[in-house]
UniProtKB/TrEMBL annotation:
InterPro entries xref list: AAA+_ATPase, ABC_transporter-like_ATP-bd, ABC_Transporter_VariousFunc, P-loop_NTPase
Domain ABC transporter span(s) in chain numbering: 3-234
Name this protein carries in UniProt: ABC transporter ATP-binding protein
Entry-linked CDD domains: ABC_DR_subfamily_A (cd03230)
Organism for this UniProt entry: Larkinella bovis
Amino acid sequence: MELIIKELSKSYQGQCVLDSINLAFRGGDVVGLVGKNGAGKTTFLNCLIDLVKPDAGDLIFNGERLTGDRLALKRTLGVLSDVLPPVPEFSGFDYLRFVGILHGVEETTFQKRSQELTAFFFDDTGALTKKISTYSTGMIKKIGLCGALLTVPSILLLDEPFAGLDPLSVNQLISFLKNYQRADRLVIIASHDLNYIQEVATRLVVLDEAVIKFDGGLSEFTANGTKLINDALFDILAPKTKTMAFDWL
Ligand SMILES: Nc1ncnc2c1ncn2[C@@H]1O[C@H](COP(=O)(O)OP(=O)(O)OP(=O)(O)O)[C@@H](O)[C@H]1O
């Protein structure tokens, strides 16, 4: 499985967010997509899932340039995104059923996967009969994750999956993701939680000022573990030193 992004560009009202991005993803990659607030990570993921229309660029999926509705790619996707939150009027279980029907998941398979996923991610599966509008932030994230995973997607795109999860739930998710990696599956995780990214990612992509500042293996990024992942990122992003001159503090 191969997904190639060629010369992808996107601007909003004259502000260039993605400037001729070139990336080649392959099955087996677990990619940590990192960068400052506003760097363009969500925009990049939304271009892949066809929620944002790029100004230029091509997606090439398994050797074929994608045009039109891009169904060949969409059928392989599992997505966790704040832009596509689980439908609040549905109960958790009905939301999973909705995802299952959309993707044509057969009933026995649906029952098995939905029960096992929810038992894994939720402490109290009784919540699944309640409306998502009554869920906490972490519960919404968990039902979104269950929905993204229900189809066992070949391409799993997770936008800030760890944000809002308690530490125990993060551990569950990390162990799940470690087990999810396969030679025919691609996982892309946009996140600010570098320590969690370090536990699951095999490859790191740093997006900054509309371009890719780093694309390589995690061990290369941390100089074979001799650098802390945070320090390695600071080196690349070269943060400006800001003085704390608040005379009212
Ligand atoms: N619909 C939009 N209209 C105008 N500008 C937008 C829109 N969506 C995103 N932007 C701008 O594009 C830039 C990149 O936003 P994006 O959400 O992709 O960043 P991000 O890296 O995901 O940020 P964060 O880490 O804060 O989630 C920001 O400057 C943002 O204001």
